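Record type: monomer structure entry
Structure origin: computed from sequence
Chain ID: A
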Amino acid sequence: MEKSIHKDQVERFGSILLEIGSLLMSYGANSMRIRVTLNRIAKAFGYNLELLITHRALMLHIDDKDDQHSFNQLKRTSPHGVNFRLVSGISNMSWRIVSEKWSLDEIEKEIERLKSLPHYPRIIILLLVSLADLSFCRLFGGGMIEMSIAFGATFVGLFVRQEAVKKTFNPYICIFFASLASSLISGLAVKFNLGDHPEYAFATSVLYLIPGVPLVNSFSDIIDGNIMNGIVRGMHGMVIVLSIALGLALSLLIYQI
């Protein structure tokens, strides 16, 4: 009976680790951070951990010190996004597990709390991202007209992307739609020569789509020796860049500029 209880505990703990690893992978953590975080939690409970991380799946093996019970399972990860609040929350949780000796119930409760954290309101995201691109336009040397055009183009483009995501289009198609929408609006400034430097608005109106997190994680994974993951993340970033470029190219073709 005791062995059966211990086996159930190992399986439950393994499932929790897979859930944590899947959340980290899906929301912007690099491979080393995932490995370190899961190892930290496993050691706190006295388990040995072996982990295989791929871009779309995690394979995990844990066993106790006596090698009497083990857990092996593969879990697919959801499409990748960015949620640093959840990533940092899991990191903080892992340290508290070590220092405060959390139980499995406490870990599961904290995971559910982190997953239920509310996102920022949609209008706030639209406004702040648009302000960021407006600021980039200013850094490039754009004036009030160019900044206003960059703000409007970013707002509309991001709105289009959000709507495309809601309708479950392919992620790269969503980025293409957003790039096209933003560049069509900012391209009007170039077409009709609005402002002193309308090309600044055109160039900065799609900067919100640049895949910073995939490219940084790609470099980080390669440096840490996770070559395959680094290459896959890098290719993912390059396809996003290609989608942005196609949207810009089509708008240039439409306006003949």
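Annotation 1: Residues 122-255 form one domain.
Annotation 2: The beta strands are 47-53, 57-64, 70-76.
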